[in-house]
Amino acid sequence: MTLAARLKTRAVRLTHTALGVVLGVILAGAVAFQPVEALAQAVEAPPAPAPPATRAVLQAEGTGPALWVIRDADSTLYLFGTVHVLRPTTAWGSARVDAAFDSADQIWFEISNPDDQAALVPLIQQHGISPDRPLSSLLTAEEMTALNALAASAGMPAGQIDVFRPWFAALVLSVAPSVRAGYDPQSGVELILKARAEAAGKSIQGLETIDKQISILAGMSEADQLSFLRSMLEAWEDATVELDRMVGAWATGDVALLEEIAVDEMKSESPVLYEALLVGRNTDWANQIQTMLEGSGTVFIAVGAAHLAGDDSVQEILEDRGLRVTRE
C-alpha cells in the first residue's frame, strides 16, 4: 500500500492527535486566515506579543486527564497529555495536575513558542504558499468547488486558498470545523499552561521546533499532500464528532478509549505515518527525558495526548528501557 493510499485515514483525527500539535493551534488562531499579502508584512513588523494572561479552567469531574510520573533519587518528571484546541467550557482542571505543575522548575512542551507568530510566518511563506502551482491546477473542478465552499464557510477571503500548498490547505481546513463548532485555539492546553508558567517565572523548553513539525507534512510528495487534502474534504463533515469523542476520553482520563480513537486506527491504516508522527517522535522525546533524569529537580512535560497512549507511547518506550513510569 502506498503512502497516498494510507493517508485515506481520517485527516481530522490525524491533525488533532498525532500532528495536532501546537502547529494546528497556531494556524487556526494566528495565521491561517490572514490574506497572503499580510504574511509578508507580519514578517517585517510582527505584532508585539501580548502580556501573558492566565485563564481559569473548569474543574473536571472525577480525576480528570491522566498524569504520569518518573522518579529517581534527585529527579521528578511528570508526563501530561494535552489537546491543542478546546472549547472554553471544557472541564479539565485537576488539583493533582495543578500541584505537579506548580512543583516543577521547568515546563517542557512539544515546542517552546506555540504563540510566536513571527517564528511561524516565514515558514508558512516558504513551505505553505505556492502561487506558481495553485490548487486549481492540481484538483478537479468539482474538488475545487468543494474546497472553495469549505474555505468560505471557514471565513477565508475568496480565492485565498488557491495559492496554498496541499498540506497547508488540508491543515487549515482540518482545524476550521472545530473552531466553527466553538473550539477555541486560545483555550488549548499548551497556551494556558504556558501563560501560567510565564506568570510564575518558570523555565519553558521545547522538545522540538516549529520547523520540524512543519517538515513532517511539507516534506511529503505533492501526490501524498493531495491525498491528505482529499481525505480532509471527505472527512470534514464528521470532524467535530470525532474531536468531541477524543476530548471526552482525554478529559476523563480514559486512556484506553483515547488509544482506540487516536492511535489504533493510524497504526493499522497508516503505518508509515504512525512511525513518523508517533513512534519516531516518541523515541526522540524518550531520549531527551532520559537525559533530563541525569540532572536533578522537578520537570513537567506536556505533549499531545496521543503520544502518551498505546504500545509505542513515550511511557512504554521508557519502561522498555528499564525506567518505572507510574500513573498518578
Short structural summary:
The protein has 328 residues and is an alpha/beta fold.
Structure description:
The protein is of the alpha/beta class and 328 residues long. It has helices at 3-6, 11-16, 22-31, 36-44, 95-103, 117-127, 141-153, 166-180, 189-199, 210-218, 222-235, 239-251, 255-269, 271-293, 314-320; strands at 67-71, 75-82, 106-109, 203-206, 297-304, 325-327. Strands 4-3-5-2-1-6 form a six-stranded mixed beta sheet, sandwiched between helices. The radius of gyration is 19 Å and the shape is globular.
SSE diagram, text form:
Layout: H1 3-6, H2 11-16, H3 22-31, H4 36-44, E1 67-71, E2 75-82, H5 95-103, E3 106-109, H6 117-127, H7 141-153, H8 166-180, H9 189-199, E4 203-206, H10 210-218, H11 222-235, H12 239-251, H13 255-269, H14 271-293, E5 297-304, H15 314-320, E6 325-327
Helix pairs in contact: 3-8, 4-6, 6-10, 8-11, 12-13, 13-14, 14-15
Task: Please give the radius of gyration in angstroms.
Answer: 19 Å
Integer average pLDDT: 82
Helicity range:
40-55%
Largest sheet at a glance? 6 strands, mixed
N-to-C SSE string, H for helix and E for strand: HHHHEEHEHHHHEHHHHHEHE
Beta-strand fraction estimate: 5-15%
By secondary-structure content and strand pairing, the structural class works out as alpha/beta
Tally the beta strands.
6
Straight-line distance between termini: 41 Å
| Count of helical stretches | 15
In the predicted model, the low-confidence regions spanning at least 5 consecutive residues are: 1-10, 20-33, 39-52
